[in-house]
Amino acid sequence: MLSQLKQQSNTTIRQIGAGVAFIAIGLFLLIAQNLAIDWLGLAILPGLGLIFLTWGLITRTPGLLIPGGILSGLGAGAIAIDLWGAALPDLQQGGIFMLAFAGGWALITLLSALIGQPMLWPLIPGGIMALVAAAVFGFNGAQQALELAGRFWPAIFIVIGLATLLRRRA
Fold it and tell me: How far apart are CA 106 and CA 114, in angstroms?
């Protein structure tokens, strides 16, 4: 009985969260599309990201943190380029953007741990993007690490295959 009430409560929270999120997304996009405010275009990606992150945190649904983190990272990168990009060469603008995007992936891991359902895999694409950004800015070892990763990335498949075979035996 208690389990059934808890399940109904979780379903209700998720339905309310979904309804509020869709209303917020619709209002946000309607305003962004119909008001001529210069900065509002830059706010679309991080605004949508914030909606997904909030939705995921409130409903404790880690899958919603993924689009939230990605959109937030993309939006932060776009804002950073808009604010500081004119003063930087194109390559460094790309580095700033990649660093912000990597931050969005890290945010997924951080917030998923906060709700008790940690996801570590977003650190892989985020780490690669951070490494690319580090190489762009000339940090020692970043270029060599990228070259090494470029040569040996197929080893990931070998590790996955071995893990699959070993797990099957156990």
Answer: 13
d(CA 121, CA 162): 19
Category of 88 on φ-ψ map: left (φ > 0), alpha (ψ -120 to 50) or beta: beta
Of 69, 100, 106, 67, which is closest to residue 83 (Cα–Cα)?
100
Calculate mean pLDDT across residues 111-140: 91
Please report, in angstroms and rounded to a whole number, the separation of the first and last CA atoms in the chain. Answer: 37
User: pTM surpassing 0.85?
Assistant: no
40 and 79 Cβ atoms separated by less than 8 Å: no
* Spatial contact of 98 and 130, defined as CB atoms under 8 Å apart: yes
Range among 30-34, 59-63, 85-89, 102-106 rated most confident: 102-106
Number of neighbours of residue 140 by Cβ within 10 angstroms:
7
| DSSP state, residue 96 | H
Neighbour tally for 23: CB within 10 Å: 11
